[in-house]
Amino acid sequence: MNLGDFSLGRYRRRVIPAAVFVAIVIGAALLCEVSFSDFVKGIVKGLSLLTFFFPPDWAAFPEMIRPALVTIVICLIATPIGAAFSIVFGLAGARNIAPDWLRLVSRSIIAAERGLPEIVTLLVLVAAFGLGPLAGVMALAIGSIGMLGKLLADAIEEIDPRILDATAAVGATHWQVIRHAVLPEVLPSLVANSIFRFEVNIRASVLLGAVGAGGIGYELNAAINQLEYSRATVAALLSLLLVFLSERLSDRLRSRIIGAGRLG
Amino acid sequence: MLQVNGLCKRLPDGRAILSDLNFRVEKGEFVALLGASGAGKSMTMRAIVGLTSVGSGSVVFTGETGKTYTTTTASGKELRRARRNIGVIFQGCNLVRRLPVLDNVMIGRLGRIHPLRSWLYGFTDREATEAMEALDRVGMADFASRVTGSLSGGEMQRVAIARAIFQRPLCYLADEPIASLDPKNAESIMQLLQPLARENPILGAFHQPEMVMRYCTRVIALRKGKIIYDGSPRLDAAELAEIYGSELNRPALTMAAPAAVER
Asked: pTM to 2 decimals?
């Protein structure tokens, strides 16, 4: 094979797929009527709109503290509830401790849940329980079960089977093996994952709030609807602060938990 | 005490991994199972505690009141009753890594306490004291509150022995208890096991014939799932060559010092 063949091969492998990809993007843009002039006009309009948002209306800040706390409380309640239920689904979804039919049922439920956006869950719950934090708590708790349940079931399946055999070999019952070998091995990672989920829930609750779950997201949405843009800026900055703080806290707590498991 | 009658096991592909094993282990014995990797040592142990199903034959274990248990066919409560009287010393990696050392030792008693109590309450102070005594016996009392995952291989092996002691069994099974240890650690583990065997018999799988000669009272050698030797632990070079396959001329097996630790 000479150099010419080689470069031709490279050309075929890289340039042709790239050209096909660009053609698809342009075709899709034409189909969806994406227009560049609209984009430029929108930017100009958006920039002028941005001036409405500044300076922030700091007088609204005291009124925003309570909704911000509501957001935190919603997540503080929803995450542990979701984590508790995820233990049930995690145990039932692990191949090495649950029968096949139960694993299938549990895995299907949590997979279906993960496929369902929280906002859809919330809309259904709002229809049943009305607007407000209760529907928000339930939506976030259900949303947490899918992720935490899957991670827990996977963690259980990764336990060294010899550990479970060795525990059963002393004459322990199946439930004793779960209590004294399975749970101690996976609970630290469940706690670490739950803290991460708390952070995800804070983010999600801002969006859910806008749909009617209460909290800072509700205030943000209400301010924009009432064209009080500088007030909305305060709400947006506050929710940004919540997300930032929960992320810092979550990183710090999780590294401590994971570190504790490794080194003792 | 422990009686293995005509034990046979085949893999799904038809290959026999245990064929017609017959032997008894009596009080006061320290029996070593020798054999190359894959000869069936671990499988024999797993069959004895009912962790694997067997094709034919049986293992009969005599409990404290003279009651006999057929562990190869028992299940549920019956199997758990037999298991709690057989202390299995696995390789140390079978401990629950995230638990403190003391909790791992106390797991040994699970078969003797009510499941509901172990779920809701855990262990009593008296049990904790006894577990500490077991740890003390293997020289690990200072490590009681350490997370088990942070221990070295030799330390974990001692904890595994403490767990078996705390279980208060009538006999012990030790599956390659010194396989992954350096010679000095291996020696000290054998020194721990020898007095234990005088109280309650031990059936152990080993890879170090020189250690076995010094500490065990009897050798059962397996080759391709068959017993090819049952008798004195004093094996000569020809017998060793037969056990490990004459085509393999491994100097480590005939040397006096346990230089190579085979895995």
From this structure: 0.79
